[in-house]
Amino acid sequence: MMNRTLYTLMVHSENFAGLLNQVTAVFTRRQLNIESLNVSASSIEGVHKYTITVWTDEETIRKVVKQIEKKIDVIQAHYFTDDETYCHEIALYKVATPAFLETSDASAVIRKYSARIVEMNPTFSIVEKNGKSEEITALYKELRRLACVLQFVRSGRVAITTSCFERVNEFLDAQEAKHHLRPTH
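The structure assignment produced for this chain is given below.
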């Protein structure tokens, strides 16, 4: 049996329609389930960043990254383990206000997880929590135990590397330097 690890892929690309479908197709062909997916603008103008998490082995993740980098609009792709990234998620928990207020443990649970109530009305309240995936899941389980959860939603992982630089910046700087060194005719 293969040794599975949760990997975080960071893919930098130009923002073109259809690229997300091409990227996710790489996972589908290998029968890999994407655990979370977040797409947003990056710190580089005109470049988007895909943050994708997947459970697999290192050999497979290497192949996936190579396949993704072959896509014409992909600038660069890298994979990381949890100790190489700082990552967070955000979650919203919609709870029944009457049931929530009747439970003496409710406010203690909210404080325990450093969550906060962002909306409260007589019918429902919305609790917000950002942090590690495990904390978000643990808070959900405790609120379920209190029998007050009406809805629950969480974001995909957002992550940055723990290194002092972003590899795509070095890559783009090198590309620009090469471009400026080419003779013009």
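Interim note for the steering committee: The longest helix spans residues 167-181. The chain has a mean pLDDT of 86.
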